[in-house]
Write a structure and sequence with these properties.
The protein is an alpha/beta fold and 373 residues long. Helix content is 35%, strand content 17%.
Length: 373
């Protein structure tokens, strides 16, 4: 059986306004999204995939003429973990993003110009509120599951807090209930690298022919260091130098240097610097720990599958263990698995075989329980 999704198209859901946590109104909102598979008659097989920091709506399959599939294609499709022969899978680009959903690069209806820093600060709860409007628009009263890794995992937890009655299960992967000071610190250094770029121009670079590419590239380089582990970097690069490249001042002599520069340079071609600022700030503000979680999470029928990775030092396993402790203290059915991996935080995109076994079994169980009432 063919397990490739082809000719995938991004769709756009538009609505008049969204009232944010801050009380401000975001008007003329657009949510970019994609769907895979078919919804069943009673709309009980819908799974929402929520993306990580730099992701987008294209989670799986190939757009027409594209050479690369969506960012989680190895997990979504016929026969895969999120089996599109069984489930109707949805993925949307978050608010404040730059891949079709309303963000700082979008046109402010009040001025007719890009928002830039006039775009309001949004939270993970605001992002999830936008997703809830999309799910309602699709006529889905209850999601079979919400799943995602890293910042996607934060959105999963926020769904359980904000709309517990609207989901049967949740799969937060390689994530946390709140950022530690170290995690905030990495994001702040990345933000400062963007804002220190003279071409950032206080966020007003959309009408110029220049953008803060240098600052954004450095921010991405910082991020990639945190996504890998010491072991994975040693295995991939060690201290290898570029072939036929004698030391020459501060040129990129080591392979790891070339890799980071490549990652930075390629990132600026697809991402907006202001979106980087807004999204990292939303991640830092996120906090559903302690009373914030206990007071609002009410649906004890929700099943949780929490996954972490042994070598992930950006979102270490103790943070996932804290999630499970909170859930079990409140009487939730929570399964926790730490997967052995040397890939670091990137493992949630790479440890496909182990994740597939876990997710497949979990979803089959949840779906059976949901169908049997």
């Amino acid at each position: 059986m063919k397990n490739i999704l082809e000719n995938i198209e991004t769709q756009y859901f538009k609505f008049d306004k969204l009232v944010l946590e801050s009380g401000k109104e975001l008007k003329d909102v657009t949510i970019a999204y994609e769907t895979y598979g078919k919804m069943n008659e009673n709309k009980s097989n819908a799974v929402l995939i929520v993306h990580a920091f730099s992701g987008d709506a294209n989670a799986a399959g190939f757009h027409k003429g594209a050479s690369k599939p969506g960012w989680w294609d190895n997990m979504i499709g016929p026969g895969k973990a999120f089996d599109t022969d069984k489930y109707f899978v949805i993925c949307s680009n978050i608010l404040a993003g730059c891949s079709g959903s309303t963000g700082p690069a979008s046109i402010n209806p009040s001025t007719g110009k890009p928002y830039a820093l006039d775009f309001p600060v949004v939270t993970v709860a605001d992002m999830v509120a936008g997703q809830k409007k999309l799910v309602d628009h699709l006529g889905i009263k209850k999601l079979l599951s919400v799943a995602g890794g890293s910042m996607g995992g934060m959105q999963v937890l926020q769904w359980a807090v904000s709309y517990p009655e609207a989901l049967c299960s949740a799969i937060p992967i390689a994530t946390t209930m709140k950022h530690s000071p170290q995690q905030i610190a990495f994001n702040e250094v990345a933000r400062q690298s963007i804002m220190a770029d003279v071409k950032w121009n206080n966020g007003n670079y959309y009408d110029t022919k220049q953008s803060p590419d240098s600052g954004l590239a450095i921010a991405r380089m910082i991020g990639h260091i945190t996504y890998m582990s010491d072991t994975s970097m040693e295995e991939k690069f060690s201290r290898k130098r570029k072939e036929n490249n004698a030391p020459s001042g501060f040129a990129s002599d080591f392979e790891v240097e070339g890799y980071l520069r490549y990652r930075g340079d390629s990132f600026v071609k697809r991402f907006d610097a202001n979106s980087y600022l807004y999204i990292t700030k939303a991640m830092d503000l996120f906090d559903v720990s302690g009373k914030n979680f206990v007071k609002t999470a009410k649906n004890k029928d929700t099943n949780f599958l929490v996954i972490s990775f042994q070598s992930d030092w950006l979102y270490p396993s103790y943070q996932s263990e804290d999630i499970v402790k909170q859930l079990k203290l409140k009487g939730y059915n929570a399964t926790y698995i730490e997967i052995k991996s040397t890939y670091g935080h990137d493992a949630f995109l790479l440890e496909v075989e182990d994740e597939t076994k876990l997710v497949k079994h979990f979803l089959e169980k949840v779906y059976k329980e949901a169908e049997n009432g």
